[in-house]
Design brief:
317 residues; alpha/beta; five-stranded parallel sheet; two-stranded parallel sheet; 9 helices
């Protein structure tokens, strides 16, 4: 997997992204299969496109799906596992499954996991990646903004979704009798270009604050629900990564040139490539934190993937 060395997670950042816990490893954990569940932040489509900046092959308009991997793809590559959606040579044995769906909420992810359990099931050698919640947060925010929900109701709604997702992690691991899970928190949408536009529209910080509060409520409830001793599941705090990347005034620390604006100029996001970026992105998908107003780009994805792979390799799975 081609991931730029300049954006791989350094030791200090890996510590920020990773949850603590677990005893020392007795033997290396080597999964024979990876299954990715979640929303658009984990998706590789059948044509190899992703919901972010897509790379192109040299002097071509053809997608290069191996470059700028989504985070489950980076984890899979670390174990020599391949998604069929990005197996352009057609000669590699695919041993990773894409069950993430764009637009999915927590309830959709639960249904997808239950369906998989009913047909295939999880074993110790199955590594599961899981990230969801952003669409639940945005839905609750929209209802709060319209007046359909009070702030307390919206917060309770996302907290319930977070608890459900955390409980789902426990279901997959089955106290060590099921799969091993890398579960990541969603990005903090309160630091996105979308949040900035909401502030500009309202003329106050209330909307940005609400987005941050909803993200925090979801993440807290999810984390509290997981039985996390490091042996069966490992947490990647992608929300904290978002905050760090979005607020650090030293952009070069993350190999960024912009952490406030979107890089892509076209919709849908799956059609965004290095050839359709704003001039400031300079034909590189990694210099902007955000691909569009709500979705982080390849730089963020690479860091989440690197941290997740580190957790899988170092936790006593």
């Amino acid at each position: 997997m081609r991931v730029l060395k300049s954006i791989l997670v350094p030791a200090a950042l890996a510590a920020l992204l990773a949850a603590c816990g677990g005893s020392e490893r007795v033997e290396d954990y080597v999964p024979t299969k990876l299954v990715a569940f979640g929303d658009e932040l984990s998706v590789i489509n059948s044509d190899g496109s992703k919901h972010g900046v897509n790379a192109l092959k040299t002097n071509s308009t053809e997608l290069d799906c191996a470059t700028y991997p989504v985070w489950p793809q980076a984890v899979a590559s670390g174990y020599g596992l391949v998604f069929p959606q990005c197996n352009s040579s057609g000669v590699l044995t695919t041993s990773a499954e894409m069950k993430a769906v764009a637009g999915a909420k927590v309830a959709d992810v639960v249904a997808a996991v239950q369906a998989y359990q009913g047909t295939t099931g999880f074993t110790r050698s199955t590594l599961v990646t899981l990230m969801a919640g952003q669409n639940d947060i945005l839905a609750a925010y929209a209802d709060w903004k319209s007046g359909a929900l009070t702030s307390a109701q919206a917060t309770a709604q996302v907290a319930a979704a977070g608890k459900t997702l955390g409980t789902l992690v426990n279901t997959i691991t089955a106290s060590g009798n099921g799969g091993r899970v890398l579960y990541a928190t969603p990005p903090d949408i309160g630091y996105s270009p979308f949040a900035a536009s909401e502030v500009a529209s309202a003329g106050s910080e209330d909307r940005r604050t609400m987005l941050r509060d909803l993200t925090a409520a979801f993440v807290e409830a999810m984390r509290l629900a997981v039985t996390n001793d490091g042996a069966h599941a490992a947490l990647i705090t992608a929300d904290q990564l978002t905050v760090s990347m979005a607020t650090n005034t030293n952009l070069s620390a993350y190999s960024l040139t912009n952490n406030t604006e979107a890089a892509c100029t076209v919709t849908p996001l799956t059609s965004c490539t290095v050839a359709t970026l704003v001039s400031g992105a300079a034909s590189s998908g990694t210099t902007y934190l955000w691909a569009d107003a709500k979705v982080p780009g390849p730089n963020w994805q690479a860091r989440v993937g690197s941290a997740a792979l580190s957790r899988a390799r170092n936790n006593p799975f």
